[in-house]
């Protein structure tokens, strides 16, 4: 199987079976980010434990790329510091999804990153990130 096929399978799996898809009752950071382009919306909840991301939860609706991207990223950020989270790049997230920066779906892919960084920087909920 080609590498591209593996990424497609990973995206479909995370879309159909998202990891950490839950609303946390107890959290330190929370934000909702959305995109008018696809109608995607993500709400993320982050609970810190001893200076590290201890638990992550999210709720999302939208395309496979945005939901899968949040699911995959939610697994990767556990155990990171706030500095680590702020240093995450768009290229890192695109790499998790097997995408490059020329893809027309970049906005969908990086919505999860915008949510994570917005939450930890205590930004206001933004009903439309890409309007």
Q: What integer value in Å does the Rg equal?
A: 14 Å
Label the overall shape: globular
What's the domain count? 1
The number of strands is 3
> What is the CATH class?
Alpha Beta
Strand sequence of the main sheet, in spatial order? 1-2-3
Largest sheet: 3 strands, antiparallel
Helix content: 40-55%
Element pattern in H and E: HEEEHHHH
Uncertain regions spanning at least 5 consecutive residues: none
CATH architecture heading: Alpha-Beta Complex
Instruction: Quote the CATH topology.
Output: Sufe protein. Chain: A
Question: Strand percentage, roughly?
Answer: 15-25%
- Going by helix content, strand content and strand pairing, the class is alpha+beta
N-to-C CA distance: 38 Å
Number of helices: 5
Mean pLDDT: 91
List keywords for this structure.
131 residues, alpha+beta, Sufe protein. Chain: A, three-stranded antiparallel sheet, 5 helices, 3 strands, globular
Quickly describe the structure.
This protein is an alpha+beta fold and 131 residues long. The protein is 43% helix and 21% strand. It has five helices and three strands.
